[in-house]
Write a structure and sequence with these properties.
It contains 14 helices and 13 strands. The protein is α/β, with parallel strands linked by helices and 357 residues long. Helix 2 packs parallel to helix 11 and helix 6 packs parallel to helix 7. The structure holds pyridoxal-5'-phosphate. Pyridoxal-5'-phosphate is lined by residues 75-77, 80, 101, 153, 157, 186, 188, 214, 216-217, 225.
Length: 357
């Protein structure tokens, strides 16, 4: 089994953060400008639709994604789970890539919360074809779970922060629609794709029935995600927001951080992408180490013992996540400078060299 240190393992105020934390883009702390925006937020009761800051955020998300309506939620996981709950009935099946977050990292939510079965397609780096989707469709026969929805991930996390090309996405979504499937986009890192590919978010989102973005990944906010779609979809999503415990009160305090992130932290994702490439270049050629291609803000690399390697770098103040017995992930973000990336790369090289010495 792989081990993955997460903050939930550690309880206490005396835990010093690693000097360079490449564990995930979720480790960012709100900037002082973001905290100031939070402190000044106008608030009201969100559940009653009376929080002006949340309502501004919803409007802003609709403008960016080209959707009719949007709802503010505590997490991306809840966006995925509410969407499946709206789109599917118990016993229905969704189709997604074998690497999908919704399949691996959401605690069995689709089964537990919606009674949904998952079938997978084995895409290339998380990107699959219309043909593969069609091959996964179930015949209309009482023996089979009804194929109900397709879930795509932009960027595809586990395969390496890979960007779905717009044309590939369109082909799959067209085939899905022609076969009566709902189309759902897990856009946890949609803006990394927007910045890397130069494609407006609305161009991707227009292909889907439901889409969401996470404010706590590269955008650097402390809490929150927004689920967007048609007015009818969002009206139905609101019921499950309440049912799943995601209806909040004066959440303008956190929505202000998300608005700030949309204003100030989208374009700078290009810096994270540059830093990821810088890191990959700096560690490539280190002994016993294979670096995978870099697409956005993630660098995956392979070593003989990923957990042991991560322990060794952590002892030098550099943290990675362990994503397989031989695979590590480094994620660049708002709280990592190019100088820190160089420092982390130097630690990786030193550890790699001492292992093979
Ligand atoms: C992080 C992530 C999620 C879940 O988002 P949370 O806000 O952490 O609940 C879903 N999908 C992908 C691809 C992610 O990277």
């Amino acid at each position: 089994m792989t081990s993955n240190r997460t903050s939930s393992d550690r309880f206490g105020t005396d835990v010093a953060p690693p000097r360079v934390d490449l564990f995930s883009d979720t480790v960012t702390r709100p900037t002082s400008a973001m905290r100031a925006a939070m402190a000044e937020a106008e608030v009201g009761d969100e559940q009653r639709g009376e929080d002006p800051t949340v309502n501004r955020l919803r409007a802003r998300v609709c403008e960016l994604l080209g959707t009719e309506d949007a709802v503010f939620l505590p997490s991306g996981t809840m966006c995925n789970q509410i969407s499946l709950r709206v789109h599917c009935a118990p016993g229905d099946e969704i189709i997604t890539d074998v690497t999908a977050h919704v399949r691996h990292y959401e605690s069995g939510g689709p089964a537990a919360l919606s009674g949904v079965n998952i079938t997978t397609v084995d895409g290339r780096d998380g990107v699959f074809s219309a043909q593969q989707l069609l091959a996964a469709l179930r015949p209309d026969d009482n023996h089979f779970p009804p194929s109900r929805a397709v879930v795509l991930e932009q960027t595809a996390n586990l395969p390496g922060g890979v960007v779905w090309p717009l044309d590939a996405m369109r082909e799959v979504c067209d085939a899905a629609q022609a076969n009566g499937l709902r189309r759902h986009l897990d856009g946890a890192r949609l803006f990394n794709a927007v910045v890397a590919a130069g494609v407006p978010a609305a161009d991707y989102c227009g292909l889907f029935d439901s889409v969401w973005i996470d404010f706590t990944k590269g955008l650097g906010a402390p809490v929150g995600a927004a689920l967007a779609g048609s007015a009818d979809f969002i009206r139905r999503a609101w019921r499950f927001k309440h049912q799943f415990g995601g209806a909040m009160r004066q959440s303008g305090v956190i929505a202000a951080a998300s608005l700030h992130a949309l204003d100030h932290h989208i374009d700078r994702l290009a810096d994270d992408h540059n830093n990821a490439r810088r890191f990959a270049d700096a560690i490539s050629g280190a002994p016993g180490l294979t670096v995978e291609p870099v697409h956005t803000n993630m660098v995956f690399f392979q070593v003989s013992d990923a957990a042991g390697f991560a322990d060794a770098t952590l002892a030098h103040g550099v943290r990675f996540s362990v994503v397989g017995p031989n695979r590590l992930r480094a994620v660049t973000h708002l709280d990592v400078t190019s100088g820190q990336v160089d420092e982390a790369a130097a630690v990786v090289r030193r550890v790699a060299e001492s292992w093979t010495a």
